[in-house]
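Weekend entry, working from home. Most of the wet-lab plans are on hold until the incubator is repaired, so I used the time to fold the two sequences that have been sitting in the queue since the last round of cloning. Logging both here for the record. First:
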Amino acid sequence: MNILAIDTSAAPVSAALLRDGFLAGEFFLNIKTTHSQTLMPMLESLLSMTDCRLQDVDVFAVNVGPGSFTGIRIGVASVKGMTLPEGKPCAAVSTLAAMAYGLPYEHGVICAVMDARRSQVYNALFDVQDGKVKRLTEDRALSVEELGEELRNRKETPVYLVGDGADLCYRAFGEQLPNVVLTPANLRYQHAYGTAKAAEQLIADNGLCSSDELMPVYLRLPQAERELNARRQQEQTLSDTHQN
């Protein structure tokens, strides 16, 4: 089985081809270029170098969120475009789950964190035993302080911080908790390999979807919408005050 996986959920962009569980090839860039410029050339090179045609791909996997609103839309739209003509199945992968499945650790808790700004992170916790990943929490948005308090209750096992929010969290509470480990820089960011491995589990769980069903998953409204709602609420409050 050929699984073509892509990740455009944050500043890095990556693509991977998993062939019967074996990583045939992977491209990864973290140079802060526009994903719309780099993704398609990356996919073309990956398929060419692994001697795989687009029609040979059995499942198309993509991280659908949380993450960059623009990046997620680019990834989802790209997979929709590739799968629609032949109706190939899609794997809608949580960005946080992709981080957990992409790590080599055999025992401990994976704490996947993405910087959501304003002292908040997108987070999920995963238990790993003998290399098998089990989700402990749903994907969520919470404050760095709240996450630190939660991890204080997990002193009995190693906790591995991964994601672009890992540094932020380690500075906030990691040095106070001896069991918290900041993953090395080469493992810290999500890779499409993790997306492909998470897709394998979705395949086993009959969790694939069609291109029509493939949609971004946002844990918060885009910043522009949040600011607009805040202004409307402020205007409504002023209006109510004047009327009273």
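Second, folded right after the first finished:
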Amino acid sequence: MKKRYAIHTFFIISILSIFTACANNTSSISEDEKRKLNIEETQVELQYLLENKNLNSKQQYAIVNQMANNLLYQNDYQGTILFLNNWVENHPEDKYNSYWLLMNAFSYLSMNAEPVAEYYFDRILRQYPDLMVKDNSIHFMCLQNLIQISTNPQNRIKYLNELINRFPEQINTTELYVRLEMEYEKDSQWDQALNAAQLFLQQPDATTIQIPGEPDAYKNARHFIDFNNSSKDWTFQSLPELEAAVKKAIRNYDWRALDKYKSKVNFFSMSWKQDEMDANAQEEFSMRSFMRGNRIRYADELDETSNPNEAYLRTWGWSEYVSVWYLYFRKVNFPLDPDIHGNWEWAGIYMGNKL
């Protein structure tokens, strides 16, 4: 019996070394070599060895890991899941159970079953201690995947906060604060969204960071904070009210009224090609110097490109250099204050004819 066990041990060690190389780089195996590897026979031998009661935890780990990798090598995801679930259920004391469940989570991802994969990633976080595998934290890998596949804002908020709090050195904290603010907004947690925006603006790279899919992250956060801290007393309850007030002020050459109607947060004046956050696009100025001595006129109707959230009023006569100005009105998006949310503001000026 001892001789037979020794033969099997030698055979399994040889197979483990071969299949470890396969797991690391399956593309290096030729078709001829693949035909020589009888995986089913190897699995039987590994299972026989695994039944030995005298294995230590490292030996046990090596065999279970190889058996799972053999199944994955054949793209047998269902077989992998069944094998590892049975192992975890029958060996609750195994300290590598979080790793086996992680393999199952990735198996479900490979089958495009993201909701089930999410369940496994979350289960590992909640029920199993963290484990380092090849210098990688399993909990960190779970959180990284969860924020990618979870569709529930409340869950994503939970995962983002956990990433920020537990692994600040391994993530881009600045970007995650932006993502966190967006998730709070989706979940209508406006106070928390405001706090996340403040934390984002406090980061040293907030003004320079390039966030995929969010090119205006700094502008939006800055506007959110500044608008919250402002009086907001320049807004009108409806677009017709704002349009009528501005037109009346222009007719009467009432520059004081126009100065009052201008937004006090990020009001811009720029060409159509500029960005409203450019430094020279937000210089403070009074309408007085542009109204004195000029004959200002405006279109009877708003521009045809206006929509339910934005409107443009064409005006002219402001300057001999740039006569035409389009006054830009927009609907206020500020759910934090229901009395202001949905009002309209005069947010800026586009100088020159539309491109």
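Plan for Monday: verify the second prediction. The mean pLDDT is 87.
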